[in-house]
TrEMBL record:
This is Nicotinamide N-methyltransferase, putative (AFU_orthologue AFUA_1G17750). Residues 1-11 have a biased composition (Basic residues). Gene3D superfamilies: Vaccinia Virus protein VP39 (3.40.50.150). Residues 1-41 are annotated as: Disordered. It holds the Pfam family Methyltransf_16.
Length: 350
C-alpha cells in the first residue's frame, strides 16, 4: 500500500448543535442525509487519485479543517483521524469576513484567529504519514537497521507541532512507554474538543502507553513552565514533522529540541519542500550551529512505498539544480539529529 493510499476521507458530518466559540468544532456529529454531499464525496475521491495522475505533484497535506480521515494501517487497522479545525469556523458574519481577508481587529488588537491559522495545524501533513509509516514498520519487523531507525518501544516520545497527532497515535500503539503530544498554545488542535483529544479518544482506548497533551510555545517558556522544567532532558525520541516553514522560529524550535532531548536521544526531522528547499536547509544549519548534530539524512520519494518495491531514496543536498515547485513536491527530507559532543572544557548548554 502506497503512503497516500493509506488515507481516505470519511463522509462529511453535520454538527447537531450550533457552533460554539471554541477553536475547534463540537465533537458531536451525525451522518448527513443521503446524497447531501455527493459532490464533496466525488471531489474527495478524485483527490485521492491525484498522486497517480500527476506523480510529480504528490500532496504535501491532506484533509479539510474539521474533516475526518481514515488512516489504514496494516498493523493497527483503521485509525480515525480528525483534522484540526481553525478558529474561523466558530465565527460568523462580519468577523468571518475580517478573518478570511486577514484584516486587523477594529480595536487594534492582534487577530488571534488569523495568527492561529498561520500555524497550519488544520491539515494532516504527508511528513506525519512518513513518520507514522516508519514507526509501524519498525514495530512489525523483528530487527535490522530500518527497524532500529524508527523503533519506539519503551521509549519516551515527544511530538512538537503535532497538529492532528498521527505520529503520536502510532507511537502509543507501537508501545512507547510515554507519549507527550504538543502544539502551540493558540493551536486549534488543543482543548477538550480539539483534534488531538478526539484522535486519542478514538484510537488509543486499549493502549498501555501514558499519553499526555500539552500546549508548548517553542523556546520561550522552558524555564518558567513547570512541565518543561520537570521534563528537561527526559525524552529519548522527539518527532518534528513539517514544522520548519517559519524561518523566524528555527532557533526557538532547536532550543526546545535541545531542552527536552535525553543525552542519547534522537530527533526525527521530516519535512517537505512546499515552502522551498532553502528554508529546510536553513533549519539544519541553525540546528548544527546551536549544538545538534546530523546523524543520518536522506530524501524520500513520497510516492514510493516499502510495500510496493521499496522506498525510493536519494542523497540530501541543500541545493538541487533545476528544482522548482513542479518537481519538488514528491520529495521530503528525513533526518535523525542528536546532541553534538560538548567541546573540550565546556559543558552542555541549556
Amino acid at each position: 500500500m502506497s503512503l497516500h493510499a493509506r488515507l481516505r476521507p470519511l463522509p462529511r458530518r453535520l454538527a447537531t448543535q450550533p457552533p460554539s466559540e471554541s477553536a475547534a468544532p463540537t465533537p458531536h456529529f451525525e451522518d448527513p442525509p443521503d446524497g447531501a454531499n455527493a459532490e464533496d464525496d466525488a471531489e474527495d475521491l478524485f483527490s485521492s487519485f491525484l498522486p497517480h495522475l500527476f506523480p510529480d505533484d504528490a500532496p504535501q497535506f491532506h484533509g479539510d479543517p474539521g474533516q475526518y480521515l481514515l488512516y489504514s494501517s496494516p498493523r493497527y487497522g483503521e485509525l480515525q483521524i480528525m483534522v484540526p479545525s481553525y478558529p474561523s469556523q466558530s465565527q460568523s458574519g462580519a468577523r468571518s469576513k475580517e478573518i478570511a481577508e486577514g484584516l486587523p481587529r477594529s480595536d487594534g488588537q492582534v487577530n488571534q484567529v488569523e495568527e492561529g491559522r498561520k500555524l497550519f495545524a488544520h491539515f494532516l501533513w504527508s511528513a506525519a504519514m512518513v513518520v507514522a509509516e516508519g514507526l509501524e514498520q519498525a514495530d512489525t519487523e523483528s530487527g535490522g537497521s530500518e527497524a532500529e531507525f524508527w523503533k519506539v518501544q519503551n521509549e519516551k516520545v515527544l511530538e512538537l507541532g503535532a497538529g492532528a497527532g498521527l505520529p503520536s497515535i502510532v507511537s502509543a500503539l507501537a508501545n512507547a512507554s510515554m507519549v507527550t503530544i504538543t502544539d502551540h498554545p493558540s493551536s486549534p488542535a488543543l482543548g477538550p474538543a480539539g483534534a488531538i483529544a478526539s484522535n486519542v479518544k478514538h484510537n488509543l482506548s486499549s493502549s498501555t502507553s501514558i499519553v499526555d497533551i500539552r500546549p508548548h510555545e517553542w523556546g520561550t517558556t522552558l524555564t518558567t513552565d513547570p512541565w518543561a522544567l520537570s521534563n528537561k532532558g527526559s525524552y529519548t525520541r522527539i518527532i518534528a514533522a513539517d514544522c520548519y516553514w517559519m524561518r523566524s522560529q528555527h532557533e526557538n524550535l532547536v532550543r526546545t529540541m535541545k531542552w527536552f532531548l535525553a543525552p542519547e536521544g534522537k530527533i526525527w526531522v521530516v519535512a517537505g519542500f512546499h515552502t522551498g528547499r532553502e528554508i529546510v536547509a536553513g533549519f539544519f544549519e541553525t540546528a548544527v550551529s546551536l549544538g545538534l548534530k546530523i546523524e543520518s539524512i536522506y530524501e524520500r520519494d513520497l510516492n514510493s512505498s516499502a510495500e510496493e518495491g521499496g522506498e525510493v531514496r536519494r542523497a540530501w543536498v541543500s541545493f538541487r539544480e533545476g528544482e522548482g515547485p513542479e518537481n519538488r513536491r514528491r520529495w521530503c527530507v528525513v533526518a535523525v539529529l542528536g546532541h553534538a559532543p560538548a567541546a573540550a572544557g565546556t559543558g552542555a548548554d541549556a
